[in-house]
Amino acid sequence: MKKTINEKQFIQAFDQMGRGNQFSEEALKELFDYLSEIENDSGEEIELDVVALCCEFVEYDSLKECVNEEGISLDEDEEVTFETLSQHINVIAELSSGGVLVCVN
Questions:
Q1: ∠ CA 25-59-87, rounded to 5°
Q2: Residue 83: left (phi > 0), alpha (psi -120 to 50), or beta?
Q3: Is the pTM of this model over 0.85?
Q4: With 0-12 CB in 10 A as exposed, 13-18 as middle and 19+ as buried, what is 94?
Q5: Residue 7: helix, strand or coil by DSSP?
Q6: CB within 8 A of 89, min separation 6: which ones?
Q7: Does residue 76 register a pLDDT over 80?
Q8: For the chain, what is the radius of gyration of the CA atoms?
Q9: Which of 35, 50, 54, 87 is most exposed, with minimal Cβ within 10 Å?
Q10: How much is the pLDDT for 31?
Q11: Rounded distance between C-alpha atoms, residue 98 and residue 62, angstroms
């Protein structure tokens, strides 16, 4: 049995699972859009598994934090930008806060 949910219900599902602080609201909205796009492109529905999403996606406060935490090696003269980061990891969205949402699997 499947249930279609909207963005608000998606965000509430994280709160209900005790994972409301795992991502900012902006990151959750970006994640919802990303997953919705995958569904539309593939024609297959995605089952909502909050815990699995928390393991597969990570929000970092900054691009530099992402580089450091993910152990990404950059050349000495290479600047940390959204484009540079995207060459090393699956970046889902750059956030207005200066943070970034990435897929780590």
A1: 130
A2: alpha
A3: yes
A4: middle
A5: helix
A6: 66, 70, 72, 102, 103, 104
A7: no
A8: 15
A9: 87
A10: 98
A11: 6
Q: How confident is the model at residue 48 (pLDDT cuts 50, 70, 90)?
A: very high
Residue 19 has pLDDT above 90, yes or no: yes
Angle made by CA atoms 85, 15, 97, in degrees to the nearest 5: 35
Tell me the C-alpha distance between 74 and 85, whole Å. 9
9: confidence class by pLDDT, cuts 50, 70, 90: very high
More confident of the two residues 97 and 105: 97
DSSP-assigned letters across all residues of 33-100: HHHHHHHHHH-------HHHHHHHEEEESSHHHHHHHHT----TT----HHHHHTTSEEEEE-TTS-E
DSSP type of residue 8? H
Retrieve residue 87's tokens.
Answer: 């060459």
